[in-house]
């Protein structure tokens, strides 16, 4: 995201609770902050022209297992970000939302479908959408909520989303866990197209409305696996397990509103995106192995 915005001429600052990860551009300013802390958020979020709020404890299963953590990370932190913008006069806000807001209410997800979350994660994202809408109308905050479909791509090595998880398991030689029969569908969007949508949203005058951001292409988990096996060059072991609570059977985004108002147009096909993702993960794995070897040698030399 930072690289994408910087190529457009934007000055970017990272805010994160974790230390800077290896491979992060060292020229990008970094502020370490826990957004669950109101005072820390007010101190950190100032003197900016806009905020892109991507921070979250992501994932439906995790939110069901740890609802209190979900509330702190996805509700309180979002509120603190909005409050910091209001109090410190930051005029622009883009909120990363999710199709989990509508749960399984519809297989083709549109902005006009009433929220019907089936997980604490979806409920937290619904809160963020509603609160941003309120701040836009009550305080004049310029912004929108972008409901991302299933995001994958480079720099997603820590994500628990299906593509990143499958690739990590493939590297480890583990069997891939498939919850359900594999016919469940998702709309897989490459991270570069997500960046495009965010950049477009930052340029518009918006009043807290919601946009679906995906590809509009519905793909089953079985088909995803077939395409991934083509890129990896070998079959992958699979273990089928019962569906998980909170998972929906079908989900694909209707992106017509984003196309019309934002000028959004996804460019990366699933095949091309998987090819780029697999290539990035291979380089990341080699780099991690080299760093591990270097650390081991340093420790041995120090002994």
Q: What this model shows, in words?
A:
The chain is α/β, with parallel strands linked by helices and 303 residues long. It has a domain of 199 residues: Rossmann fold (3-Layer(aba) Sandwich). Helices cover 45% and strands 17% of the residues. It is built from 10 helices and 14 strands. The strands form 6 sheets. Strands 3-4-6-11 form a 4-stranded parallel beta sheet, with helices on both faces. The protein has a two-stranded parallel ribbon with strand order 1-2. Helix 4 runs parallel beside helix 5 and helix 8 packs across helix 10. It is globular. The N and C termini lie far apart (41 Å). The relative contact order is 0.13. The C terminus is likely disordered.
The CATH topology of the domain at 2-152 and 188-217 and 250-267 comes to Rossmann fold
- How many helices? The count is 10
Helix content: 40-55%
Q: Helix/strand-derived class?
A: alpha/beta
Low-confidence runs of at least 5 consecutive residues:
292-303
The rounded Rg comes to: 20 Å
Would you identify the CATH H-level superfamily of the domain at 2-152 and 188-217 and 250-267?
A: NAD(P)-binding Rossmann-like Domain
Report mean pLDDT, rounded to a whole number: 90
H/E element sequence: HEEHEHHEEHEEHEEEHEEHEEHH
Q: List the strand order in the largest sheet.
A: 3-4-6-11
Span between termini: 41 Å
Q: What is the number of beta strands?
A: 14
Q: Bin the strand percentage.
A: 15-25%
* CATH class bucket of the domain at 2-152 and 188-217 and 250-267: Alpha Beta
Q: How would the global form be characterised?
A: globular
Describe the main β-sheet briefly: 4 strands, parallel
